[in-house]
Amino acid sequence: MVSSSATASGGRTRSAANRTAHYKSKAQAYAAAQDEGILDGDLDPAHLVFLIIALNAWWFSAPQLARMLTGADDQDPAEHARRRASVVSAARRLALP
After folding, report:
1. Within a domain: 31
2. pTM of structure
3. Which of 16, 46, 59, 86 could form a disulfide with 27 if both were Cys (CB 3.0 to 4.6 A apart)?
4. Shortest CA distance to 67 belongs to which of 50, 51, 83, 55?
């Protein structure tokens, strides 16, 4: 059964066009920052946006793996802060010149 939020064309959600525009605008902003020398230009800006989103999302997408690796409770505010700091540090390393 196809959900009401999907269309007949490959299951894409009705909001896909809006979301695509939103993420493309992020990639365009990254590209502009790369052109200005604010961000490193080695990575495709769309890939960089995806990688940074993935860095953050993976903690939530694979909580069991996160627990196995860190031994930490994902509900602990201090652990949340450590994970956020790690994502910020990794994103900076990926993006800054």
Report:
1. yes
2. 0.79
3. 46
4. 83
What are the tokens at 37? 């020398």
User: Which residue range is the domain that position 51 belongs to?
Assistant: 16-95
> How many H helices and E strands in the chain?
4, 0
Q: Domain tally for the chain?
A: 1
pLDDT tens, residue order, the chain (97 aa): 444 444 445 666 778 999 999 999 999 999 999 999 999 999 999 999 999 999 999 999 999 999 999 999 989 999 999 999 999 999 999 999 9
Which CATH number do you get for residue 22? 1.10.357.10
Which helix (H) or strand (E) element contains residue 96?
none
For residue 14, which of 28, 24, 23, 4 has the smallest C-alpha distance?
4
